[in-house]
# Entry
Amino acid sequence: MPVSAPPTVAPFSTLEQTVEAVAELISPAAPMGLWMVTKVEGEQWIPLAIRDRRYGFARGATFAWRSTPCVHMVSGEGPCVSGDVSAEPVYAGCALQQHFGFGAYLGYPIHDGRGELFGTVCGFHPEALDLDESALLPRLAAAAQVITTYLAHEELIEDTRRRAERAELESRTDPMTGVLNRRGWELAMEQEQARIARTGSSAAVVLVDLDGLKRLNDSEGHDAGDAVIRRLARVLSTQIRARDVVGRLGGDEFAMLLGGIEHNVAAQVVERIRAALSSARVESTLTWSWAGVLGSLEEALAEADALLIEHKKRHGRQA
# Structure
């Protein structure tokens, strides 16, 4: 009887597609009750793909990285394959046992294209199992290598993609300040959100609102107000890296998009920006929010905006 040719296989276009495929491929390797592909994001351990047979694991849950057996596996303190974790004190006593108990564990580190730790591929089972380490280790390593290869490929083409994006943004600037206008800002947000989906990176959104602009315009004229607006834009533009952007969202409201930045680093950058504005004698209100692999930049922008409104209301800042 006639047969049809198999469909053409398309390359992965997002990190989510990649980790889901890896989870599907690795889960038959051993009868674990739970298989996961995870990401280490700061101090958090975040499951990205889950194959759950025994635990009723809640998607979207996160755990402290230091509470997991993976932190000990990555450091070499525990083996990649442990059929009976009671024989491994670092696994038997780790805090994750309080969230879901496991008697058997498998794990392997995933690195990005720069060789930095990205996350882990790992498996758990409630009871001890007879696991063949010699058969499982190559499969775990191959699963991790698939994700590393995807991340390395994305990193190689990222500079070219970013240059093309910059060229697209250059025509979308605010004539008074030279920073992005609202449409340019929206486009930058779309580009960075797509980058997060492709690479699992993170970003911060910073909002800066001038204080007392209306009062200044009324007392000293619009030229004085315009001068302060331009000074604010200059200060913000000197505080960003090549990959970051500044946009003017309204008359006295500016935004900054800090791409590929961890939460703790973003907090330090925000304080540096705050200090630079103070040194330049620009009275303003600054708030920020951060989006990791499970969040979105639109949600971060909305949170920063809500914080801005609340801060001005609480401190009686004038428009």
